[in-house]
Design brief:
The protein is of the alpha+beta class. It has a domain at about 10-50 and about 160-230 and about 315-365: FAD/NAD(P)-binding domain (3-Layer(bba) Sandwich). The protein contains 15 helices and 21 strands. It has helices at about 15-30, 55-65, 65-75, 110-120, 130-140, 160-175, 220-225, 290-300, 345-355, 365-390, 400-405, 410-425, 435-445, 465-480, 485-495, and strands spanning about 10, 35-40, 75-80, 80-85, 95, 155-160, 180, 185-190, 195-200, 205-210, 210-215, 230-235, 240-245, 260-265, 265-270, 275-285, 310-315, 315-320, 325, 325-330, 335. The strands form five sheets. It has a seven-stranded mixed sheet. The longest helix has 27 residues, at about 365-390. It is globular, with a radius of gyration of 23 Å. The protein starts with 7 loop residues before the first strand and ends with a helix.
Length: about 500
């Protein structure tokens, strides 16, 4: 890249990551920036990332994407949280809902007040103070905004990732993004700076660019193969390295949540869409062979399989630098954290937001790259620790896999988080945390970690006033949840809206 103004961005790879990048650049910069996306229909995409988290609503809002259009175009259903089955022990389940519990009072987290209610009044169901939990239990969903600003419905989507990518492609091409069909045969670099200058396709076409975005999936053609950025391996904490996937026919109305069920050597996801149900078994090949895992998945499908099962191979971790020279990596090219908490699409979105904030006008400044890399690395580490907690805090000892997870050493910062919650009910937060207090509370409590005490301020309120306020809050949340339409009714309403 020369000292000239940055004019050409080349995205290598389509799929969700590539077309998210294209739509973002097209929306923000319009015709002032040339955007070319290179992909090959022969290579295909992974296309199994069907479950999202609420931050996708911000991405869609920036692009001006209407919720009804998304539901119609991508066979989407809604997601209010995740149900974890058999993780703590067999026969046990809990919810990780998206919204907060209650409302914070007197400057401390609501969970301290619930802990007071549990200790002194025998309360057991903290889900009564969470609208998403109540909506999940009754199969309901509806608009985000309510007449009570402090109590809104936090929801995301469960959609067909291939259809979502196609939806974004139409959006991008309508705004000037150029798609080039072809496979990369060679990559040319500036001999002095090491920056990439062009991609050479198999038919000898040359695609020149000033900034390149690597969305080439696990191949990591630019960030890994060409620039040689090392990969940070986290398999000592996240040992699952395979996933066998297979869609099946639907079995009844779609539920407004994703289900993940702990299995012999990993876990199985169930993601209900309008036209089918997505399924996958994420496992460690040290504890189950691929054919064994395939048969296990097929035996647990709720309907007839709609395609032949396929196996994906991966290693948990990330590139130590996701922005190297004039290449920014997104999606699987930058790293992989198993989809237990549906973070894959969010991490693409987060990287794009940081890229837009630091977008170079000319040659890339080393300090800009460093800030981007430091922030992304920290965010990946925070998500990593949240995932590890699900495995570490298990009581299961029925298979070698779960005994290994229960007994493994964990990162120091995660250990500090667990100890702080267990001793004082304190939920530590760090600047790059994606998952906030309510999420950690859901998972730690769901996995059986109970605090020995809670914040002393929670005892300051007189008992009668305390019980009255908690009762009114529980009633208000329950009434709001019960007023929602059913999940199926809400989807039908949106699909009928023009």
């Amino acid at each position: 890249m020369t000292d000239a103004k940055l004019q050409k961005v080349v995205i290598l790879g389509g799929g969700t990551a590539g077309w998210m990048a294209a739509t973002c650049l097209a929306k923000v910069y319009g015709e002032s920036l040339s955007v070319t996306l290179v992909e090959s229909a022969e290579i295909g995409t992974v296309g199994v990332g069907e479950s999202t988290i609420p931050m996708i609503n911000l991405f869609n809002a920036i692009l001006g994407i209407d919720e009804a259009d998304l539901v119609r175009e991508t066979e989407a259903t809604f997601k209010l949280g995740i149900e974890f089955v058999d993780w703590t022990r067999k026969g046990h389940s809990y919810l990780h809902p998206f919204g907060a519990y209650g409302v914070n009072m007197e400057g401390i987290g609501f969970h301290h007040y619930w802990l007071r209610l549990a200790v002194h009044e025998g309360a057991k169901d903290y889900g009564q103070f969470n609208m998403e939990t109540l909506a999940i239990r009754s199969g309901r969903c509806g608009p985000t905004q309510t007449d009570l600003p402090q109590i809104k419905l936090n929801k995301a989507y469960q959609f067909d990732a291939t259809l979502y990518a196609a939806f974004l492609r139409r959006y991008s091409e309508a705004r000037g993004v150029r798609r080039v069909e072809g496979r990369v045969n060679d990559v040319h670099r500036n001999p002095e700076t090491g920056d990439i200058t062009s991609l050479i396709l198999e038919d000898d076409r040359t695609i020149e660019g000033d900034l390149f975005i690597d969305c080439s999936g696990f191949a990591a053609l630019l960030i890994g193969k060409t620039l040689g950025v090392p990969f940070q391996d986290w398999s000592q904490w996240l040992p699952c390295n395979r996933a066998v996937v297979a869609p099946c026919e639907t079995a009844g109305p779609p539920t407004p949540y994703t289900r993940v069920t702990a299995c012999e050597a990993g876990w199985q996801w169930r993601i209900p869409l309008q036209h089918r149900t997505g399924n996958g078994y994420v496992f460690c090949d040290g504890f189950a062979a691929e054919d064994e895992a395939t048969q296990s998945l097929l035996s647990r499908l709720e309907g007839k399989a709609q395609a032949e099962p396929r196996v994906l191979r991966f290693t948990a971790g990330h590139r130590t630098r996701m922005w190297e020279k004039n290449v920014v990596s997104l999606g699987l090219a930058s790293g992989f954290l198993e989809p237990l908490e549906s973070t894959s699409i969010y991490l693409v979105q987060s990287a794009l937001a940081r890229l837009m904030a630091l977008f170079p006008r000319g040659p890339v400044n080393a300090g800009v790259r460093s800030k981007f890399n430091d922030n992304m690395n920290a965010e990946y580490e925070c998500v990593r620790d949240f995932l590890i907690a699900h495995y570490k805090l298990t009581e299961r000892d029925d298979t070698p896999f779960w005994r290994m997870c229960r007994d493994m050493d964990i990162p120091d910062r995660l250990q500090m988080r667990l100890e702080a919650f267990k001793s004082d009910g304190v939920l530590l937060e760090f600047p790059q945390d994606l998952f906030k207090e309510s999420s950690w509370f859901s998972v730690l409590m769901g996995q059986g970690l109970r605090p020995k005490t809670y914040h002393p301020l929670a005892d300051a309120m007189p008992r009668e006033e305390f019980l009255n306020r908690m009762g009114q809050l529980r009633k208000m949340i329950g009434q709001r949840a019960s007023a929602l339409p059913t999940h199926s009714q809400y989807i039908s309403h949106l699909k009928g809206r023009q």
